[in-house]
Amino acid sequence: MFTDTHAHLDFDRFDGDRDEVIQAAYDAGVKRIVNIGADMESSRNSVNLAKKYDFIYAAVGVHPHDAKGISEDDYNELSKLAQNEKVVAIGEIGLDYYYDNSPRKEQQEAFKKQLKLARELNLPIVIHSRDAKEDTLAILEEYAKGLEGIIHCYAYDLATAKRLIDMGFYLAFGGVITFNNAKDLREVVKEIALDKILIETDAPYLTPAPHRGKRNESKFVIHVAEKIAEIMGIDVAEVAEKTTENAKDLLGI
Prior knowledge:
Layout: E1 2-7, H1 18-27, E2 30-36, H2 40-52, E3 56-60, H3 72-81, E4 87-96, H4 104-121, E5 125-130, H5 133-143, E6 149-151, H6 158-166, E7 169-173, H7 183-191, E8 197-199, H8 221-232, H9 236-251
Parallel strand pairs: 1-2, 2-3, 3-4, 4-5, 5-6, 6-7, 7-8
C-alpha cells in the first residue's frame, strides 16, 4: 500500500477525468492520498474532495504565492475548514523566494499566522520552502516549536535535512529524485532514516521518470518509492510499508 502525501487533484488539469485518475491510483495500490490546499478555493475544494472519497484526506492553507491577498476573513474560514474530520494538516504554507509572487514580508507574516492556526487546532503542518532555507528555519525554530509536519518536496542539503528532522519534521520526496540532475538530493535520501521519509507526487506537477513530460498523477508515486528503494538498497515493499506507517503516525490516516 502506498500513500501519496501531497497532491492537487482538485486543480483544473483534472477536470476532464478526475474520477478516473483517482480510481487508477487506488487500483495501482495508492490507498491514501492527501489533497493539499494552495489558496482559499483549493482548500475548500480539497475538503469537498476528501468528503467524496473515503481514502482521500485534505490539508487547508494558503501557499506563499498567494500570501499578499490573504485576509482575516480567510484565516477565520481556514480555521472552520480545518475542523472538518477529514482535514489532517494545515498546508501548504511557507516561503517561496524563487518566484516572489508575494512580497517576502507578507509571505513571512502569512506563514507565522498559519503556524499559529496549526498550534491552536493541534494539527501538523505542510511546509513549502523554495530558495528560502534560512528564513524558513528561523521561522520554524521560533514559531513552530512543538509542532510536527512535513517539508514538502525537500530540496536542501543533508545538514539542513538533519536539522529539520531534529526539529520533528518528516521530509517528503517526489518525482524530483528521479531526475538526472538530482544526484545531490539522492545522496540526502541515502543518508537519512526511512522512518523520517514520506513520498508524494505534487500532482499535476513534477512528474517522475519514466513519465516526464506528462501530467503527474497520484499513481506515479510508486516510481518515487521505487527510486527510494533503489537508493537505499531495499525492497520497494519496505518503502511502501514504512512511508505509509509514517503518514499514519503523523497524520492519523
